[in-house]
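Hello forum,

I keep getting stuck at the same step: I have a sequence, I want structure tokens, and every attempt I make locally crashes halfway through. Rather than fight my setup again tonight, could one of you with a working pipeline run this one for me? It's a single chain of 358 residues.
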Amino acid sequence: MLTKLTTPTLILALGIGVFETAATAQGGTTIALLSVQDRAANTAVAQALDIALRFELSKSGSLIGPDQTRDTLRRMRIRNGDQTAPERLRELGQVLGADLLVTATLHDVTIDQAPQLTASAMLYSSTTGELLSGAFEGRSGADGHQILGLGYVGEIDKLVPVTAANLIEELMTTTTTGTGSPTATRGSLAGLGVIGVVPFDGIIEVNATLAANTLTRAVEVTLLRHGARMLSPNRTHEIVRQIQVGKWGSIASDTRDTLHSQGNADVLLTGTIEWYELGTRGGLANPRVGFAMRLLDASTGRIVWTGDIERRGSSRGELFRIGRVYSKGALATKLLDRLFNDLAKEAPRLTSTLGDNG
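Reply #2:
Ran it on my machine without issues. Output:
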């Protein structure tokens, strides 16, 4: 099993030179991929993800070179696009000459046991500086594992290109009805109005902040998948940062008022992650994820809905491992799907009570 991943290894695996993108790109769209945020503290995998994402993005438009992007980010003192106010992202897009800005985050990496990683990508308009779409992927080398061991992937470098391809496919094909407003579907969450996601906090003993950041991103992307209209995360972050000075998991009254009046949020969603760990069962990875969340009326601060859930990856996958989940990121997504399906059923009733102090 590989314990170290080098950039040439991934290029050989892809079988191409990924930096010859401008000449082979299809269409007239110009795209800038900002620096991959390495939350997992694994430089080799983060670099490999950057290369794989560039290759996938080159299929959708002309990709601005990494050196030009990096120099511009440094000159403008922008470290994280997801935490940069829309006005600054608009300026960045103008300086780079980009139509679209893509951010990416490597949330976690595990190389022992079956290798696994969790990553996300977000697509921003350079015209508005706000979110257009998002993608989140949790993947394990054991995802295709069968009784005889067929389908098992033992090397992290084989997971990276697949993860990147899935992220960009979702990112570039999401239909929107406007900035940050995916097309509503039957049973979706669009009826709740604009949802502001206030970053979650964590009460776990190890890597609580990392886990909370990962879950927050999973929440944002899963909301979009369920047809929610969401306040652009970078605008939410800017408001919360200024008022609460980085204190996540709670919503001060001033923060709520500002998200409602300036961000036009109708409801606010936040919560706490209580479990985010990776164990083993039957010699294979067995994640455990648990969290609680609450939805508030942005105009009154009244809690209108709560939900909590906790599961292990093996909870419903004992017989022949059917339905078993091996990745923390994938398990978090499945649990969020369940809670948001429940929330969608209650959305009509909740909508009728918004703005009611009673």
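The first strand starts at residue 30 and ends at 33. If your local run keeps crashing, start a new thread with the error log.
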